[in-house]
DNA sequence: GAGTTTGAAACT
DNA sequence: CAGTTTCAAACTC
């Protein structure tokens, strides 16, 4: 079911309602699809399909990966649907199209004028890319989270792209479009109009002419201002001419656009137009329309969305191929364009945005987007929830770590934004993203952005807007984007299973291109004897299906063997609930001390390995060391991103002669000792650090994947000492040692986080509780929505938000429970995942509180710490918790578990174990609903066992 | 590309 | 729980 079937299913669904794109449509199928594709995305480059349906098989990464995977899927699904709709629309020579085409022309003209000013330079996707990225970010975030939730926005973007694709009679046109950047917008428009036949070149020329003709009199300088007005006018005209239902658009906006797209009034309109797009068959036309009518920003958003969609699109093609009721269209789009097309399409979409968008607007829009995005997550559930981590527990963590490390809390946000933008740009031009390169690029982009005053303003706005939430969303966005690109690559490359088949369908060439483009970095497994059914296999461990990039032999980690995979996963999880949990736990604790001062989060122990390494000869200086190891996301995805875990060794490590560059075990002790000294005192610096840390964490996957800590906890602390961070946190568990918490924390507690925990258990609990509440509220809302309108209604939202999140939320809401022990653990992990975004607002509040109370950490910690706290035996070393201690797939199931056995919650382990095993199936809401009980039962069983 | 080294994962 | 084996990645040549 997970991968293949779902993908297929979506097709019909999409096909059925060609015109209507109601988010609901995405529902089950879309969810499945999203899940499937997302998996791929997660691994990104490789497009490794995750184990969708597998309830137990945590989707690969219960935490982040799943989300990422899902996102792409959702996007794909949506896209497929959209495509269908587009096809229909495009195919239909409706009056709307005509009118639209006309409008587009006008639009184009206007845009060009604007572009000439702003974008002329911008045209190169790069410049626009930033904005686009920003805009896109939201979308991406949606996509990312959307794993479950199908972001309307994303859909819209997808729709646009698809529509464009549809409009393009020939894949070649798309390519040409890509090549002819300037012509992109026009091309897109034309495509939308169905003028693709003429060819890109003609488009380029025509639009220009049009500009001259229509706006010849207008100065370029006027472009921006007038453009806006013109845009509006045009939009209104278009609407009228098209007979499009503005209302629909508005309503739709309510879904997706409001959340993300709502930027400015104009942008809103744009968003609406987009939404209207999705709904209306003439989506394509709408897209252009939006571009023209709405602010460039909106366009960029759309573009970014489309772009991301495209990126996802790679997977999309798969999904589309699988799902698309009309293989022709799919084939046309996918095969002709495949990955490349996706990128191209992105380029197109981006180009539109780029051209149209002006920095200022961008800035504004971005800020708004950031804001909107946050709400959207709630509203839409889609992106915000993104649960960055969803992408990948470890990987994400590593990624996030990297980001924050570089620039720290707020900075990380900026990076996220910037990176988003840069990524978008690059991705536009370059579909394939190379993990490290991408990151670097992102960072570079970030720098660039920072340099630009406008960008700065944006950044500031973003940061201010939702603070951590925004940053998170952004971060997630970035990661998502990266993943997206990677995923697309992977999708392209991946041909395994149905999903893979889909890719294959697209076109080997495309795949190859993508692979080649993106991917050298994206390594995948090379298993020969394990059949990719053991943790030896990175893919399997990551919860991803093996794909083309893999050179494994006798691989069973494929959609075709889903049942086998699931069973195996279950077995492994039964042995070690944390087996699939992220290995790296966030550094919450450590960051503050050394790294902060230095500004290096990475440095010493920003993140910790769950179990800790056991190096004896490598001195923790080689990749053999899991702490030092460069986590290429461990997953294929990671490989692409190639994020360095940069995890310092900690007490948990049993390494000998540790020389870990990122933090020696000895150093860790020292730091701990220092911390201990100051533990009792929460200096302002610590508080600030905490704040920063929170922000960073928000961005960091760890939060998303608090599981690790919990897991560690759960591990029983076999290595109590082993798991540096976790143990630290765990120790504090009030229950276990309320009074001695600090003591219990022991050395590790030294970490600021630990300190915080120590400082006030109450605070922690309270904070965590609050978080829970907040999250719960949001979750509840989401959950309600989900439940009420499972997939269909809020496909995007429900589906994605870290796919599992909705479930979790629902579970949480159910559980709601409370009291800390159980609730906390679950809530924490769950919250984070699901609400990295949603929570933001709450988080911000909490941060503020923390400021005053220093409880922020609590929240953060709560996620894991609570888990840990709950864990009866904090000291148990990580190993104990998870012998393997590898990736603990966190959370998804945690909620369920929590729900199932609140009473058992106390025993962190039980909880953890339950949670771990019960990874929510990749499939979104549906699964969650249906499986929730199962997972619960499982958890409960585990708990009973415990 | 083949072989070696390494340490995690799995097994006993 | 400890020890051993298996495994695949990382590394070296």
UniProtKB/TrEMBL annotation:
InterPro entries, per database record: CRC (IPR005172), Tesmin/TSO1-like_CXC (IPR033467), TSO1-like (IPR044522)
Biased composition (Basic and acidic residues): 84-98, 937-946
GO molecular function: DNA-binding transcription factor activity
Stretches the record annotates as Disordered: 1-36, 63-98, 497-521, 866-903, 922-946
Signal peptide: none
Domain CRC as annotated: residue spans: 521-663
Subcellular location field: Nucleus
Compositionally biased region (Low complexity): 10-23
GO CC term (a single one): nucleus
Keywords linked to the UniProt accession: Nucleus
Biased composition (Polar residues): 24-36, 64-83, 870-884
Main location: nucleus
Similarity field: Belongs to the lin-54 family.
PANTHER family to which the protein is assigned, alphabetical: OS12G0605300 PROTEIN, PROTEIN TESMIN/TSO1-LIKE CXC 2
Official protein name in the record: Protein tesmin/TSO1-like CXC 4
Organism: Gossypium australe
